[in-house]
Write a structure and sequence with these properties.
Helix content is 82%, strand content 0%. The protein has 17 helices and no strands.
Length: 393
């Protein structure tokens, strides 16, 4: 199955990247899962908690680009080691008990480590297996495994004593050190990476209507995704709908369904037109969020979580696929699309926190409804545009 790996060096690159990406999934979910504990321990308000989640997204976006550019000067290994050192240092800052600025720096640093890891591992696996989609899907599957394992681990440690979350933070320091060690051992080029220059930047994609439709769809999708992932546990706990332990379990259920949804979308996309598939996912996103936000019983909460996770899982990659020909034709198209769309993931968590502080956590979380409804509107507009283009062809 792994015959394409030619030697021991490539096998190390493959296995180390998979383990690192699993740890990265744990890092990503720790932000929302740990938030209620940090909030209670430090006496933080909702607005400040929202800022912290937004700073994680900002660090993630910043390092996604910087980790791609820095190797031109330092080399790939030195660059990733610099960024990944932020992983254990961030949790040490959380444990240090300093003021608000220490938390601000810590959450930004978790984003730096997450984004750089995503850039590095995707680049590594793409180089090992060009054209082998299952290898990339497997890599992102490892992220999902880490994402649903972390809340379960946190629940087990804090079930009888909430203050035990500090032990989990120490565990993440160890995970960060392990990730750093794997990067230090992974075989890769050490020297500066030469970049090809193609002269004047091409901006023809700005004249393409489908570019704006895809950006808008991704923007509001990321609003909903980061809003729910960052605030889900806090919402269930503070709204009195679930105990802290059950809220963490629901976070794991969400990621199990995201994993199932990604696998299902990959299979369904070969049998159903992707514009129809995207529309189905958009409708599911709206309907199941309504179920989620209005649910008052455990059974309905589970249905809402499962449906929402399954529906959201394939929206991002499917939307990007519609802009594939533009991304291939114009070198800057992907960078502009990613940067613009990612603003949604940065803005929404902070907005939820501000609304929650002013009106309560229910209204803060309910604001995501606006994002999913607008997102569905752009999905419909995208489908209409594609249908027209196909009729004219």
């Amino acid at each position: 199955m792994l015959e394409f790996l030619k030697n021991k060096e490539e096998k190390k690159q493959f296995y180390f990247s998979y383990v690192i990406f699993l740890i990265n999934g744990m890092l990503a979910l720790s932000i929302g899962a740990l938030m209620p504990f940090i909030r209670d321990a430090r006496g933080l308000n909702y607005a400040f908690c929202g800022l912290l989640v937004s700073l994680h997204s900002l660090g993630n976006l910043f390092s996604s680009f910087a980790a791609g550019a820095l190797p031109a000067w330092l080399g790939r290994k030195k660059s990733i080691l610099i960024f990944n050192s932020a992983f254990p240092l961030a949790y040490l800052l959380m444990l240090g008990g300093g003021g608000e600025w220490s938390l601000i720096l810590a959450f930004f640093m978790t984003g730096l480590a997450r984004g750089a890891t995503s850039n590095f591992c995707n680049h590594m696996i793409n180089n090992l297996s060009p054209g082998k989609a299952w290898i990339i899907n497997g890599l992102h599957g490892m992220f999902s495994v880490g994402a649903f394992l972390f809340p379960l681990l946190l629940t087990a440690v804090t079930y009888n004593e909430a203050g035990n979350f500090l032990y989990v933070c120490w565990g993440m320091v160890i995970m960060g050190a392990l990730s750093f060690s794997l990067y230090a051992l992974i075989p890769t080029e050490d020297g500066p990476v030469k970049k090809k220059t193609s002269g004047k930047p091409q901006l023809g994609f700005l004249k393409e209507p489908i570019f704006y439709l895809c950006v808008a769809t991704l923007f509001f999708y990321l609003c909903a995704e980061q809003g729910v992932i960052g605030w889900l546990v806090t919402y269930f706990k503070d709204a009195g709908l679930l105990s802290g332990a059950l809220a963490q379990v629901m976070s794991s259920v969400l990621w199990i369904m995201i994993l199932a949804g990604r696998l299902s979308t990959a299979w369904l996309s070969t049998r159903i037109k992707k514009e129809k598939l995207l529309l189905m996912m958009g409708i599911g996103l709206v309907l199941f969020f309504i179920v989620l936000i209005t649910a008052r019983s455990g059974g309905m909460i589970v249905i809402g979580i499962m449906g929402f996770g399954f529906s959201m899982s394939g929206i991002y990659p499917t939307t990007v696929s519609f802009a594939g020909h533009i991304i291939k034709r114009y070198a800057m198209a992907w960078s502009v699309m990613l940067t613009t769309a990612s603003v949604g993931a940065i803005v929404m968590p902070s907005l939820i926190g501000r609304i929650a502080e002013a009106a309560g956590i229910f209204y803060g979380m309910s604001s995501v409804a606006a994002a999913v409804v607008v997102d569905l509107g752009f999905i419909i507009a995208l489908k209409v545009y594609i249908d027209r283009q196909q009729k004219q062809a």
